[in-house]
């Protein structure tokens, strides 16, 4: 489902490029949860953002869900649906001034999907939320509820690959466990392929079938 071949990632700093991920090669099988673990600044989130199409400054080879991706080329068409991301801060994908239903409906309208409201209601039920919460604004929900809505937003597009960037690190311990158990259940029910970034080895052990450790932009174990 995912194949990276000697992939390197750069960030722009003024007029210069700084390489933050060096020659990473890995494969993730369909239906697998694969972990990237390591300290802050090791390059794991930078690698994830490339797989999400959010950073085009990379070199090497990448295949996602049967699509061969070229460096510098934005994601488009089916690929934009096949790969979805859940961020550490759910505000990154929820408009603070729009009711949740409006935010969740917009990508479905662009894709000319039908039965949008029933899809959203079912999405809320799928993650254990009352569909009535869709009429609220993000600030009216708890942190755990917002992260569940962010997961709904990603799943509504029926992706093949779900990328998770520290999805529980901003939450209380008890809520962390709820979200991780929810993701485990969704993986089993929906057959999702997941890549999980975390600095916490316990989270990786709980969620992942396999994992690699990163340090200073390299896979080290």
UniProtKB/TrEMBL annotation:
BP GO annotations: transmembrane transport
Matching PROSITE patterns: ABC_TRANSPORTER_1, ABC_TRANSPORTER_2
Keywords: ATP-binding, Cell inner membrane, Cell membrane, Membrane, Nucleotide-binding, Translocase, Transport
EC number: 7.4.2.10
Domain of life: Bacteria
Enzyme class: translocase
Primary site of residence: membrane
GO cellular component: plasma membrane
Keyword match Ribosomal protein: no
Bilayer topology annotation: Peripheral membrane protein
Entry's family note: Belongs to the ABC transporter superfamily. Drug exporter-2 (TC 3.A.1.117) family.
Protein name from the UniProt record: Glutathione import ATP-binding protein GsiA
């Amino acid at each position: 489902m995912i194949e990276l071949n000697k992939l390197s990632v750069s960030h722009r700093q003024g007029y210069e490029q700084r390489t933050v991920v060096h020659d990473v090669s890995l494969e993730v099988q369909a239906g697998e949860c694969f972990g990237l673990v390591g300290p802050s600044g090791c390059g794991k989130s930078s690698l994830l953002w490339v797989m999400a199409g959010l950073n085009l400054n990379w070199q090497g080879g990448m295949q996602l869900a049967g699509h061969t991706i070229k460096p510098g080329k934005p994601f488009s068409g089916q690929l934009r649906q096949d790969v979805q991301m859940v961020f550490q801060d759910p505000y990154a994908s929820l408009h603070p001034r729009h009711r949740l239903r409006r935010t969740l409906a917009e990508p479905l309208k662009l894709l000319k999907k039908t039965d949008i409201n029933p899809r959203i209601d079912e999405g809320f039920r799928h993650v254990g939320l009352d569909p009535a919460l869709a009429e609220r604004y993000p600030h009216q929900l708890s942190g755990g509820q917002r992260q569940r809505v962010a997961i709904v937003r990603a799943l509504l597009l029926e992706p093949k690959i779900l990328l998770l960037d520290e999805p529980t690190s901003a939450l209380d311990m008890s809520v962390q466990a709820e979200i991780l158990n929810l993701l485990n259940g969704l993986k089993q029910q929906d057959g999702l392929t997941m890549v999980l970034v975390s600095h916490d080895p316990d989270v990786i052990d709980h969620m992942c079938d396999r994992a690699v450790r990163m340090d200073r932009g390299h896979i080290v174990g």
